Amino acid sequence: SKNLANLIVTRKVATDVEMYYNNHFLMQHDLLRELANHQSNQEPIEHRKRLAIDLTQNGKNCPNWLVEQNQPGIFSRMLSFLSVRGTQQQQKQEQVTARIMFVSTDETFTPDWYNMNPDETEVLILNIHSNKYTFPDFIQKMRKLKVLIVTNQGFHPCELNNFEVLGSLPCLKRISLEKVSVPSLCKLRKLRNLSLYMCTTKQAFGSSDIKISDALPNLVELNIDYCMDMVELPSDFCNIMTMKKLSITNCHKLSKLPPEIVMLKNLEVLRLSSCSDLKEMPESVGRLQQIWCLDISECISLTQLPADIGELHGLQKLYMWGCSGLNELPHSVTSFENLKHVIHVICD
């Protein structure tokens, strides 16, 4: 309470699962946020390592330096004429060099009226509140961008446009999307981590013009959580040989996995927690020798495990609480007793 922040824990059980995203939230007091913004604003634009830009309410909250840089036509010349001496020279020197940039927009936002040169930005966080959002063209200037986080605060998934602009970014390694309609994929050759939370995936996974394995050839980690239109994992994901972690959780319509999953020879973590319609796992899962963590907790429709699951000689963690339809284990699990390491089975 003295730190003006409260930790809100929404899922206690997740703390027992390794490498799992916990639904914990930090509620921050407005006073603390204002203090942080005040401290940041004491530095000139060109010296800030973290930059927050509020473009809500039809640009009324937009910072003056950004408005002045992007005034069009006659009005721009009038503004320059009326400005104090030296301001014009100062504007030319102001460059956005922040490593972390946070941009907040609402339904009044139009990306065509301003432009920036964020050459040094490595992390871009977009906090949007609208049914449609178009990625601004200045993103393609972010040649050092490594992380993109898009969070939609609206009630319905947001339609993303100009998504292909991300394909020109040479360093982009991580994308996290929350409550958006994922558009058709473009080639993201450097991308290693893709996280989708409360998204619709039909357009990206079902009707994309490009093969998933061609768009994401170096993907290492895929996290899909609360994506309610997720019925099955496209088999082309199994052609991404670099995949080490596959996590599909709380996708209640997911009914099956492709048998081609055996092609993911480097897969280490397979998490299928709380996929209530999942009735079976492919027998080929038993041949994924690199898996050390298998999580099928709360898969209430799952009635049996692959017969060869005992062949997972690298398995260290097996989470299977809440599997009310699973009455027995395959006989092959007896081979686990011959392993040199301990297997932790977490169940009811």
TrEMBL record:
The keyword Amino-acid biosynthesis belongs to this UniProt entry's keyword annotation: no
Report the domain of life of the source organism. Eukaryota
The cross-references to PANTHER family, in alphabetical order and at most eight, read: PLANT BROAD-SPECTRUM MILDEW RESISTANCE PROTEIN RPW8 (PTHR36766), RPW8 DOMAIN-CONTAINING PROTEIN (PTHR36766:SF3)
Please name the GO terms of the biological process aspect recorded for this protein, alphabetically.
defense response
UniProt keyword terms in alphabetical order: Plant defense
Species name for this entry?
Arachis hypogaea (Peanut)
Recorded hits in SUPFAM superfamilies, A to Z, give: RNI-like (SSF52047)
What is the designated name of this protein?
Answer: Resistance protein
Q: Which InterPro entries match?
A: LRR_dom_sf
